[in-house]
Structures are given as structure tokens and as C-alpha cells.
């Protein structure tokens, strides 16, 4: 009974997640796991030089079979990428089909590799029950050559040449191609596909829509996969393809006739095409092909009209259905065309009416799910930003396959790779065996996992799918990922590079978010990752503190070009680089491990002693940063300190024996020590007598170290808390004076990675006649360091800003409202640290929100994407942002760590003002919470409003291209519907059965208890905008608002510290 009651409290999407977790149904077997670029990856590089960009080019990818995966446009596949369904297009003018996204390579782009297409992830759910992708396809010939040539003319100091610069979208001469996927009501392995293409131009234009079914080539390599049998595709009739795969058995892909280009036009029937997913060796290498029909056959058939290019027997391992909308000039201006198809176990005709209703129900359920994640008084604009952030996060999941032994030695049926290729790239990672669905940074620019990126991805994932977030963190520490020595793999270009140690923090935050939002306390997950991270922590101590002095190296640490030298190479000066950020990261690592140990010790006492170890190790690191070489009783920094007492800032330093040379560059390197902070409640200390006893012993016997590094040993903070921090109050205020100065770190859009001070005062160093320089560069990099496709010398990056905000919030828990700093410096306005954190959050949120003139900062000055009605609602989540203007830079769809904005919208979106408008003056009352109302929303919530007004203001609204948007149906479908309806009497009309509105059900989360949420039922076939709501819903929304408004610091402290 309790199980049934619990089940009834969940939304439809939450039920799917529950069933998947309990293995009742496999809801996640199919999803958006297909790569967007498999070519030019390290995995596919078998060259002697290791030049992946040259060894497997975009042009080669049409002809050459991939070894380690597949790619495609708007792709869906299973969790092993065995059966792939993707979209192909042709406008009648291109020389090739549009089957995948195009971009310039690292050597072709003036800032490295860059995708040169326009596409957007509009929606997705954690189980991929509903997915929506938008691709903007030009009606003119795609400017492949122009994009490469013009990009090559640009210097590193110029903006990149983008596809919008070509003018190809002028006058709206393009198609908005909306690709949707929905899973059926009863079977999560029955996939429904709908592609709708809208002509935005002034003239009719032809379009060919060519959905593909591709079987990943697992049979050509001579591995154990061949023993399982070769999969096969064949036509069973003019509308159906049978998929016979050893993994799945028999499946059927069925295509419905498509409505013609007008109401009067005849239906468009598909032409089924077949070939083999085999390399065209004759074209590439002048050798005989292994198969008569090869990978590029559809290009030959559709574009060049070579009818013999495809298999007349209608069978193979790659198939497509060609829908040609070229009658009467094509799709009329302002009109659209739609195709529908499905993959199922049983096949059968498609009922287009019910087919479309499934899409409507899935989007309603998606609306419900995301409303439950943030049932807050958010503006529709912010809610859309959050929704698209989640969508991008989910779309950038990908099956990642890499087995080092096969890659290094070659496959049985292929020639052995050159010896010592790529100078032995990744030669120390022979144990790697990866075949998992992973969260990637960007499926085109970075189609591989990156260890520290993943840690940040897991924060927004924990809000919507904590099981997946935990899985990602567990995988990185498993023995087939983690090196036997304890190092975590960085990324495929060099697994041995060192990323910041953020995985303990991420594990603890995921644990906390799941407990707070879903009432689940997964101590087994926390304990499992903690034990593996003990090994990783030991690796850091043994490998990156070679002299045992608690000052750490680490290399580039994900910050690419932030230093004056390449920090991953030996110094041209000689000596050892002692890194302020690396040492700060390790202090941060210590405190997060301490946090986890104390959490575990509440139910598993053995961890109490381990907590003591991390407490003491933190103090030794903290002492070494400022007081290395200090004598007993000294309270001032030594000349070997990483803290500069004159500048009041932390710097890297080069250590030569007994001499240390500081490198006075004001960068994130000097802010990262703020991360290392932790508050301890007195009740918690009393709960662990062994830990408290060891703490007291250390304070008594290592008094000099303790007094220098434990804030306020005698004067406790708010709630009698104890503060562990690398910085005392004076240093904290001094650092914040620079960080909150708009002439230094504080931008209109967040915290810069390098102080603007260096714009007029570049740091210069002469080494043996060679000049090294660091200057403020708010945009792209002016050097080729680390590929030249990222820049940490001025731009704004979300991950480091996210941790800075959390640091300010932790300091606020200790210092409370009494500690105020000027923010911004020179404004005359003094804010407490929680208010400073909120201000930084708002500035970063402003990157994505239109200002009063309708411009999103992330779009730069591009009027097309800012103002055009068919562009302005889509939000790009760039890799990083210009330190002055907020213009998006780097990867276009860095939907992983940039998606952490979704968490901030949840926490503080209700108080976010419109960009470029003055901040409201703080009210003369104490804040109730780290996250609380301060703006017009507060007064709005205090007023009694009519239900309809409240709903209109805050209820979720349909985003771009609503799932219930009416679409034309084929003549065949309308005929079937007419025949069916004639079988009913007057009292037997087809029922429009009632469905729960958006599938809303009850769920315990941060803003509402389970019993607080229950919504009205409505007609499932009405349009989204006409759904009715009852007073019960309004009461629950008000209840959620009230809970949110009345949160306190004590409630919120649970996110950042271990509570008693």
C-alpha cells in the first residue's frame, strides 16, 4: 500500500526514473547518445604523427567507417550505439547530404576548432521520453569552402568568422527543421519520431528529408563482437524496415506517408534506400571494396542521381527513407511539411492522430517534471533559460567507447598501427576499457569526457536525475577508468594531464542535493566514492608534492593559458613552480574529504578518525601557503609565502632551493584559495568526541599552526561555528576588495579570470633574452597554447564562478550579516557576503536574459539572433564569455558546466533583475536566507491574487514549437480516421480521455512537501495554452512560494556543511 501511495505521488517522468532505478523497465536504453562528431577524434586517429584533425577529416567521414562510434544530426541510439537513428537533409543545391554538423578544424580556425552551424537543444527529459532539437538548414548551397577560407584569413585578435556572417540566412531563406522524439505510453523501447520543417523564406523551396537507420560497424575488426553475429536491415514492404540485431532481436522501423506540400497535394511516400556501413576503400585508397555497396551511397543516389549506388535487393547495414518535397517548387513560404515514423517491436501502421497525441502527452509530462524541479515564482524568460540548460545537458550525453589495448595494438582484421605513434600518447593508460554513456562538455567541439567538467555537470544533473549524476562520479573512480596509481583520467588528448580535484566536492554536493530535493540519503554512494577518492588524494600527495612541504604543483589544472609559462612543461627558468591554485585546490580537497568523513561518521563511526587526518592535513597545507619556514610563534608570512603581504593577494612562485621568486599576476590563481573554507557547528563537534579530542590535542600541541590557520579560536562565528579557511578575515576582505572591483575582477557578467588591471599593466618577464607576457584579454586567446581554443586571461568561466559563490556563502554562515564589504568597490553600497554572492549570481544569469532592448549578452551584437522572431528565443550555452561584454566564446554548446546556471536560477532567479538595470537598494532588515526575496516579487507574493492571475504569471508556459502544435496529417491517415469514425454510433464518439495536466503529481523537494502538490485534470487533446487549473493547484503554488520565501540560513547551510 505504501509503495502504491509513493508511486501515486510521482509525476509520469519521475515514475519512469523510479522504474529505471528499480529495473522494472529500462527507460534509458534509448536516448540522445549519438555523437555529433566522431571524425578527427583521438580514438579514430591511427596516424604515426598523432594529428587527429588531419588523419580523419570531415570529407573522409562520408566514405570511411568509424571504429569507435557513429555520429549524425539529431541522433538517437541505444546505450551501446549499436542501432542509430539520425536525420539527413538535402536542399537540392548542396554537393553532399547534410548528415552531420560541419566545422573548421584546429588548424583552420583562428581560435582552433569551431562548429559552423546553427542548431539548438530545445527540450529533453532524463529518461529521454521526449526530446526536441532544432536545426537551421540554409536553402542556398551550404558555404563549406567560404567558411574555411574566411576563417583562415582571420588573425587571433579578430572575432571568428561565423555562418551568420555569410549572409546565408538573409531574408529568412532557410528551414527551421524541428526533430522530435517521444516514447510510447506503454513501451519505453517504442520510439516515435516527428520531423517538421518550416520555410522561413519569401519563396517556395525544395527540401528532401532523409531519416537514416545506421548499424554501427562491429563486425569488420575481427574482435569478439563478430562472434555475436552480423546485424542486418531489410525492407519488408514499401513503408517498413526490419532491423535484425543480435542484441535486440527483431525491430521494425515504419514510415507513414507524409502530407504533401499543400492541403491539396498528394501524400509523399518514402523511397527506401539500402547500402552497407563499409568504407569506400576504392575512392579513398585505390583498393578493392570489402562490400559492393558502401557508406557514401546515399550521397551518390540523392545528389548525383546514381541509381546503382544503392542495393536493389533493399538490404544492408545502413538504410534511409527519402521524402522529397519538391513538387510545385517545394515548401511554400511560411508553410511547413511533416514526416512521422517509429521504431517498435511489432511494426504496424501509424495512427497519425494518436501518434501526435503521444507527443502532446510527453511534452505535458516534461512540463510537469520541470515545474516540480523549480515550483517557484520565476519569470517565463528565466524558466525557459533553465529548461534549455537542462535540455542541452541531457542532449550532450553520449556513448563513449575506447578500449586502449585494441587502440594501441590494432584489431585482428586491420594493419597494426605505427609503433610509438603520437610519441606514445596515453601509453600509461593500458587498463582503460570504456563503453559507457557519459556526460560530455560539447558533442562537437569536445566529443570526449573531461574529468573536471564532469564534476560540474553533476550539479544540475543531481537536480533532475541524481542516479545518473552519481553514476558519472562512480565511473571516474572505477578501476577501468582510474589509473592503478590513483590518478583520474583527464581527457583523451592526454589522459595524464592533471585536472583540479573537484570530485569529492561534487560527490558531496550531489549527495546533499538529492537528500534535500528528493529525500534520499545515499550513504552507500558517498562511502563508495570516498574510499576511491582516498586513493586519488594519496596520488596527489605523492606525485604533486614531491618535496613533501605541502605546497603543490599540478600543471595547467584546467586553466590552460592562465600562467606566464605553460604550466604543464618544465620551466624555462629552472626550479619548481609552486602553484597557489594547486595548493588551494588541495586544501579545498582536504576540507571536502573532511566534510564527507564527518557525514559518514554519523552512522559509521570508523570514519571519525579519518576526519581527524584531513583536519590536520588541511592545517599543514594552510600553514605552508603562508608560513613556510616560520619559527614557532611567528604570525607574519615568510619570504617563501605564496601570500604577498604588500599586494594582499596570492601568487604562484618559482622555488629555487632556499629562494622563492613570486610571479605577481592577479588571476584566478589568487582567488582559488577562497574555495578552501568550511564551518563546523559546536553540536557536530560534540557528537564526535574522538574527533574533538584530536582537534583539541592539535590545537594544544601545535598551537602556532592552529592559531595561524583556524579563524577565531576563542571568538566563534554565527551559531558558535568554527571556521577552517586558508584566509583569515583580513585577507578575505583584502581579496574581496580586488574581486569586487569593476576595474579588476568584477565584470557586469561575473568574475573575470584575470584582473583588468593587466590591460594597462601587463606582467612581463625576461628569461635568457626571451620575453614572456601576460596581459588582460577579455575575449579569445592570442596564442596557440593548449590549442588556442580557450582563454583564461580575462574571460568569465562558470565553474570557477560557481565555486567562488559557494565560498562566499560558506563565509557568510560564519561571519553572518555583520561582515559587509563594498560591492562594487567605489559604489558606496555595502553588502554582506550572501548578498555579494547573490549579486555575482545575477550578473552571470544576465548573460542569457534579454535586456530592455531585447539583446542577450551571450549573443554579442548579432542582431539576427537577438532580434529575429525565429532566433531570439533560443539560448546558446557557450564555454566561456567575454570579460567586458559577455559575448559567448569557445564551444557553442558547452551545455555541461555552463548548465550550472540552472541551479542558480532555482536558488536566486526570483530576485534577478533585468540586465543593465540598477540593483534595488537592500532592505533595512536582516536577510532570512542565503537565498531570499529582495525585489518586487516579495511584495507580489504578499498580495492575494486571483487564481487565473497567479497562474498566468508563474505557471510554466509552452516553449518554442510546442509538442501539441497542430500539424498536417496525410490523406491516408484522414481516410483511415473517417472510416474508423463511421463504425461508431451517435453515443459512441471517439473519447477524448482525460489526462493529468502535464502529469503533475506530488513530490518532496526543496520547496514543497509531497502532499502539497496535486493538480487538476484536463482534456489531453486541448492545446497547451487552454489547459484548465483548479483552486487546489493555486493553493499548492502559493504553498510552494511560502516555503521558498521563509527559508532560513539554517535551512540553507545544509547545502554547504555537515550538520549535527
Please explain how this structure is put together.
The protein is of the alpha+beta class and 1060 residues long. It folds into four domains: 191 residues, Glycosyltransferase, CATH 1.50.10.10; 295 residues, Beta-galactosidase, Chain A, domain 5, CATH 2.70.98; 176 residues, no CATH class; 118 residues, no CATH class. It is built from 29 helices and 39 strands. The longest helix has 22 residues. About 6% of the residues have low confidence. Its main location: endoplasmic reticulum.
CATH architecture of the largest domain: Distorted Sandwich
Low-confidence stretches: 924-928, 932-943, 984-1034
What amount of the residues lies in strands? Answer: 15-25%
Arrangement of strands in the largest sheet: 7-8-9-10-19-15-14-13-17
Instruction: Quickly count the domains.
Output: 4
Given the structure, what is the number of helices?
A: 29
CATH topology of the largest domain: Beta-galactosidase, Chain A, domain 5
Coarse structural class: alpha+beta
CATH C-level category of the largest domain: Mainly Beta
The helix content is: 25-40%
The major sheet is characterized as: 9 strands, antiparallel
Mean pLDDT, nearest integer? 86
Q: What is the molecular shape? A: globular
Number of strands: 39
Radius of gyration: 29 Å
> Span from first to last CA?
33 Å
Essential attributes:
single chain; 1060 residues; alpha+beta; Glycosyltransferase; Beta-galactosidase, Chain A, domain 5; 4 domains; nine-stranded antiparallel β-sheet; 29 helices; globular
Amino acid at each position: 500500500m505504501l509503495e502504491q501511495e509513493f508511486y501515486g505521488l510521482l509525476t509520469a517522468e519521475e515514475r519512469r526514473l523510479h522504474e529505471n532505478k528499480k529495473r522494472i523497465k529500462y527507460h534509458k536504453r534509448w536516448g540522445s547518445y549519438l555523437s555529433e562528431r566522431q571524425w578527427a577524434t583521438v580514438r579514430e586517429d591511427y596516424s604515426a604523427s598523432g594529428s587527429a584533425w588531419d588523419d580523419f577529416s570531415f570529407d573522409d567521414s562520408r566514405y570511411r567507417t568509424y571504429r569507435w562510434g557513429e555520429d549524425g544530426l539529431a541522433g538517437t541510439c541505444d546505450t551501446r550505439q549499436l542501432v542509430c537513428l539520425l536525420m539527413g537533409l538535402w536542399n537540392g543545391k548542396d554537393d553532399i547530404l547534410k548528415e552531420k554538423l560541419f566545422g573548421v578544424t584546429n588548424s583552420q580556425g583562428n581560435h582552433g576548432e569551431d562548429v559552423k552551424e546553427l542548431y539548438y537543444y530545445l527540450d529533453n527529459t532524463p529518461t529521454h521520453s521526449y526530446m526536441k532539437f532544432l536545426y537551421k538548414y540554409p536553402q542556398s548551397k551550404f558555404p563549406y569552402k567560404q567558411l574555411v577560407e574566411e576563417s583562415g584569413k582571420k588573425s587571433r585578435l579578430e572575432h571568428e568568422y561565423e555562418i551568420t556572417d555569410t549572409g546565408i540566412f538573409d531574408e529568412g531563406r532557410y528551414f527551421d527543421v524541428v526533430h522530435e522524439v517521444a516514447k510510447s505510453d506503454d513501451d519505453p523501447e517504442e520510439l516515435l519520431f516527428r520531423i517538421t520543417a518550416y520555410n522561413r523564406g519569401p519563396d517556395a523551396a525544395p527540401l528532401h528529408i532523409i531519416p537514416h537507420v545506421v548499424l554501427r560497424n562491429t563486425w569488420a575488426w575481427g574482435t569478439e563482437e563478430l562472434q555475436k553475429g552480423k546485424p542486418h536491415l531489410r525492407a519488408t514492404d514499401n513503408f517498413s524496415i526490419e532491423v535484425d540485431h543480435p542484441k535486440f532481436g527483431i525491430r521494425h522501423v515504419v514510415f507513414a506517408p507524409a502530407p504533401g506540400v499543400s492541403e491539396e497535394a498528394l501524400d509523399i511516400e518514402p523511397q527506401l534506400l539500402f547500402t552497407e556501413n563499409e568504407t569506400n576503400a576504392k575512392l579513398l585508397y585505390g583498393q578493392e571494396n570489402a562490400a559492393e555497396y558502401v557508406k557514401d551511397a546515399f550521397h551518390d543516389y540523392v545528389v548525383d542521381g546514381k541509381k546503382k549506388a544503392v542495393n536493389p535487393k533493399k538490404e544492408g547495414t545502413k538504410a534511409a527513407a527519402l521524402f522529397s518535397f519538391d513538387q510545385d517548387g517545394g515548401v511554400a513560404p511560411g508553410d511547413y511539411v511533416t514526416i512521422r515514423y517509429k521504431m517498435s517491436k511489432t511494426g504496424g501502421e501509424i495512427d497519425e492522430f494518436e501518434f501526435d497525441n503521444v507527443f502532446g502527452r510527453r511534452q505535458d509530462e516534461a512540463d510537469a517534471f520541470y515545474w516540480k524541479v523549480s515550483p517557484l515564482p520565476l519569470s517565463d524568460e528565466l524558466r525557459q533559460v533553465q529548461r534549455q540548460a537542462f535540455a542541452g545537458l541531457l542532449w550532450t550525453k553520449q556513448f563513449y567507447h575506447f578500449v586502449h589495448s585494441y587502440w594501441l595494438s590494432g584489431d585482428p582484421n586491420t594493419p597494426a598501427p605505427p609503433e610509438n605513434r603520437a610519441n606514445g600518447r596515453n601509453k600509461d593508460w593500458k587498463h582503460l576499457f570504456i563503453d559507457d554513456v557519459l556526460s560530455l562538455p560539447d558533442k562537437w567541439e569536445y566529443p570526449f569526457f573531461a574529468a573536471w567538467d564532469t564534476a560540474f555537470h553533476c550539479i544540475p544533473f543531481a537536480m533532475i536525475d541524481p542516479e545518473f549524476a552519481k553514476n558519472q562520479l562512480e565511473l571516474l573512480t572505477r578501476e577501468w577508468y582510474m589509473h592503478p596509481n590513483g590518478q583520474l583520467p583527464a581527457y583523451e588528448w592526454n589522459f595524464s594531464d592533471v585536472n583540479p580535484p573537484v570530485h569529492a566536492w561534487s560527490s558531496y554536493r550531489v549527495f546533499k542535493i538529492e537528500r534535500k530535493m528528493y529525500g534520499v540519503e545515499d550513504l552507500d554512494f558517498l562511502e563508495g566514492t570516498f574510499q576511491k577518492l582516498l586513493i586519488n588524494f594519496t596520488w596527489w600527495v605523492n606525485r604533486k608534492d614531491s618535496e613533501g612541504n605541502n605546497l603543490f604543483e599540478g600543471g595547467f589544472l584546467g586553466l590552460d593559458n592562465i600562467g606566464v609559462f605553460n604550466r604543464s612543461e618544465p620551466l624555462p627558468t629552472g626550479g619548481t613552480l609552486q602553484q597557489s591554485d594547486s595548493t588551494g585546490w588541495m586544501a579545498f580537497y582536504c576540507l571536502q574529504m573532511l566534510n564527507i568523513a564527518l557525514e559518514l561518521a554519523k552512522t559509521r563511526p570508523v570514519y571519525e578518525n579519518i576526519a581527524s587526518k584531513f583536519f590536520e592535513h588541511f592545517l599543514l597545507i594552510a600553514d605552508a601557503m603562508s608560513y613556510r619556514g616560520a619559527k614557532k610563534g611567528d604570525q607574519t608570512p615568510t619570504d617563501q609565502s605564496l601570500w604577498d603581504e604588500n599586494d594582499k593577494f596570492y601568487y604562484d612562485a618559482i622555488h629555487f632551493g632556499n629562494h622563492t621568486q613570486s610571479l605577481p599576476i592577479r588571476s584566478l590563481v589568487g582567488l582559488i584559495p577562497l574555495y578552501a573554507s568550511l564551518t563546523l557547528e559546536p553540536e557536530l563537534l560534540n557528537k564526535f568526541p574522538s574527533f574533538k579530542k584530536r582537534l583539541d590535542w592539535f590545537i594544544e600541541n601545535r598551537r602556532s599552526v592552529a592559531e595561524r590557520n583556524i579563524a577565531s579560536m576563542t571568538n566563534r562565528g554565527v551559531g558558535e561555528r568554527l571556521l577552517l579557511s586558508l584566509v583569515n578575515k583580513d585577507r578575505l576582505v583584502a581579496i574581496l576588495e580586488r574581486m569586487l572591483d569593476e576595474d579588476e575582477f568584477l565584470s557586469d557578467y561575473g568574475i573575470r579570470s584575470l584582473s583588468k588591471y593587466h590591460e594597462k599593466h601587463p606582467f612581463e618577464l625576461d628569461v635568457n633574452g626571451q620575453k614572456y607576457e601576460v596581459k588582460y584579454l577579455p575575449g579569445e586567446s592570442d596564442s596557440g597554447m593548449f590549442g588556442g581554443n580557450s582563454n583564461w586571461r580575462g574571460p568569465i568561466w562558470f565553474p570557477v564562478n560557481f565555486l567562488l559563490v559557494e565560498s562566499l556563502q560558506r563565509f557568510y554562515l560564519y561571519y553572518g550579516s555583520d561582515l559587509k564589504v563594498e560591492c562594487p568597490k567605489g559604489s558606496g553600497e555595502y553588502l554582506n557576503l550572501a548578498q555579494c554572492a547573490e549579486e555575482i549570481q545575477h550578473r552571470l544569469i544576465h548573460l542569457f536574459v534579454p535586456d530592455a532592448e531585447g539583446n542577450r549578452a551571450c549573443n554579442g551584437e548579432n542582431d539576427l539572433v537577438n532580434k529575429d522572431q525565429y532566433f531570439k528565443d533560443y539560448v546558446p550555452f557557450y564555454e566561456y564569455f567575454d570579460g567586458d561584454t559577455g559575448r559567448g566564446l569557445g564551444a557553442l554548446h558547452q551545455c555541461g558546466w555552463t548548465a550550472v546556471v540552472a541551479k542558480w536560477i532555482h536558488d536566486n532567479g526570483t530576485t534577478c533583475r533585468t540586465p543593465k538595470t540598477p540593483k534595488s537598494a537592500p532592505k533595512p532588515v536582516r536577510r532570512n536566507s542565503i537565498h531570499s526575496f529582495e525585489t518586487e516579487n516579495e511584495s507580489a507574493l504578499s498580495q492575494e491574487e486571483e487564481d487565473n492571475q497567479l497562474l498566468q504569471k508563474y505557471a510554466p508556459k509552452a516553449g518554442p514549437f510546442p509538442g501539441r502544435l497542430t500539424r498536417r496529417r496525410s490523406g491516408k491517415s484522414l481516410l483511415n480516421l473517417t472510416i474508423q469514425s463511421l463504425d461508431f454510433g451517435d453515443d459512441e464518439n471517439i473519447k477524448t480521455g482525460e489526462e493529468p495536466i502535464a502529469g503533475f503529481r506530488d513530490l518532496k523537494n526543496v520547496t514543497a512537501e509531497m502532499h502539497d502538490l496535486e493538480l487538476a485534470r484536463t482534456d489531453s487533446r486541448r492545446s497547451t495554452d487552454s489547459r484548465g487549473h483548479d483552486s487546489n493547484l493555486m493553493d499548492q503554488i502559493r504553498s510552494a512560494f511560502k516555503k521558498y520565501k521563509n527559508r532560513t540560513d539554517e535551512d540553507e547551510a545544509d547545502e554547504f556543511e555537515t550538520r549535527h
